[in-house]
Amino acid sequence: MKWLFSALLLxxxxxxxxxxxxDCHEKTSPAMVQMWRQSAHAxxxxxxxxxxxxxxxxxxxxxxxxxxxVCGRCHARALTEHRQSRHGLGLHSGWGCTRNLSxxxxxxxxxxxxxxxxxxxxxxxxARFLKQSSEMGQIGCNRCHQVENACGSCHGNHLxxxxxxxxxxxxxxxxMGPDHPQWEMWxxxxxxxxxRVKGGDVAPDCQACHMVD
Length: 213
Description:
Among the domains are: 97-140, no CATH class; 166-213, no CATH class. 55% of the residues lie in helices and 0% in strands. The protein is built from 17 helices and no strands. The radius of gyration is 21 Å and the shape is globular.
């Protein structure tokens, strides 16, 4: 009998917490609630607490981001594939490092690395961004390269429609600008022009070549 009570409790408590969250957030952030309701999570019974936890003070302080490991509890295969992809490597791949640039200042290493370590620090700021403008220095690498540990970077935070991650506009959030202008290069190429006018059946977008599977 005890196991039955425990099972019912596990099913009931998250539902109560989700209801509590929704009651408040329908007033403060209704679009977020609407997106969750339209997602695959809501009908599957995946509520707010399942992903965000129940420490509301940490959430208000902006310290309760949903890490990729949280998504991996249910999406284990997707997390494994992500970890093996270039997105999963993120900053740790060494891309953007100035080590191969001629005439670089070795003092720049300190922007990304602790002395004597090849691993980037958690608050890494890309040296090449810092060299280009003060605004880029404020943004730094983590604005885009958090993709290594944040599924929402491509999939969005509350919707689960795969069309979002497969839209080339999503890629443009990161793959643009003077440091890595892939979006501009594609957009002004023959592929990009034809894709805009005729659609994906005529010319490829980012996903057609880079996300074949």
